[in-house]
Amino acid sequence: MLLLQKEFPSLKSYVLPSYNIKYTNKGKNLRIKLFLNIPSVISAVIKERKIVNLLIEKEGLVGIISDNRFGVVSNKIPSVYITHQLQVLSGLTTFITSKTHQKIMKQFDECWVPDIEEEPDFSGKLGHLNKLNMNVKYLGLLSRFKNKNTAIKYDLLVLLSGPEPQRTLLETKLLLELKSYKGNVLFVRGTLLNSTKITKPYNFKIINYLLSEELEEVINQSELVLARSGYSTIMDLAVLGKKAFFIPTPGQFEQEYLANILSRKLIAPYATQEEFTIEHLNNLDKFSGFEVYKTDFNLDFFKLFEGK
Question: How many C-beta atoms surround the C-beta of residue 75 within 10 A?
Fold first, then answer.
């Protein structure tokens, strides 16, 4: 929320109830932890439905676009749900989690999927179903960035992101593993906290976070990007046509799946957080990196909200 307020300081913002999802130190325990969070999620959904109804009256809203917020929906105005997870991977419980999510999506007038409908798609079976009984539209790739022909300044860009404690665990591991890396490294920690002092090699530049324009610039200036295999990151790197190495968040089946399909397509390699070593960065030759894909958002999608 703080980062969005920094990105868009002139826009009015409201804080919705947190789902209070807690993550674990060990990925294998994540599914149990998420199951225990269900009552908290249900409580937050009930509260956000009430808030949305109040905002419709207060702000005169004519439409809703919900980015994976289950309760940000109304039968008073057109409501759209954005997700790339028509199927939600959760191991042995995938059928249950997918059907539950699809039931939530059906409460909305339309479901917008940020991906290409046909090949080459990037969400795989997450964003594509053989049988659809809901109003699904494909947006193409979405990214705030643009590809620029820029001179390379950094041999390696490390982009940390995601929930704690896994963000810190990966940061600690990478600072240790990459201390013998010989090229220029820009290490973006992905945190708004400024208090932590980090001992770094001479060839490292460490930044806590970057806003969109700065981040666009440094990604364009980087030869290789090391990051989590989150879907938004994948779309950004595809639009910018970058070479990448991915480390999925432990226990997040979605990120593990996305990293795996990109590896099988010989676009980008990956390693688990536990197994990663600096030697993995020496085996990039057979991977092509992303081609440059254009974002081509069709404004006709917004006709749903006209005259409402």
Answer: 9
Which has the higher per-residue pLDDT, 120 or 214? 214
Where does the chain show beta strands of DSSP type E? 64-67, 79-82, 110-113, 136-138, 154-159, 185-188, 204-207, 222-227, 243-246
By the 8 A CB rule, do 98 and 72 touch?
no
Instruction: Compute the mean pLDDT over every residue in the chain, rounded to the nearest whole number.
Output: 90
3-state secondary structure of 246: strand
pLDDT tens-digit readout, 241-271: 999 999 999 989 999 999 999 999 999 999 9
CA 276 to chain centre: 21
Whether residue 201 has a cis bond before it, omega within 30° of 0: no
How far is Cα 25 from Cα 29, in angstroms, rounded to an integer? 8
Sign of CA dihedral 273, 274, 280, 285: negative
Using one digit for the tens of pLDDT, what is the confidence trace for 103-139? 999 999 999 999 999 888 999 999 998 877 789 999 9
Q: Which of 77, 75, 106, 93 has its CA nearest to residue 31?
A: 93
CA–CA distance, 244 with 266 (Å, rounded to integer): 11
Q: At what angle do helices 253-264 and 231-240 cross, to 10 degrees?
A: 30
Output the pLDDT for position 150: 93
Residues 95 and 99: their CA atoms lie apart, in Å, by 6
The model's pTM is 0.89
Measured distance CA(116)–CA(137) in Å, rounded = 10
Write down all domains in the chain, each with its CATH number in brackets. 11-141+298-305 (no CATH), 154-282 (3.40.50.2000)
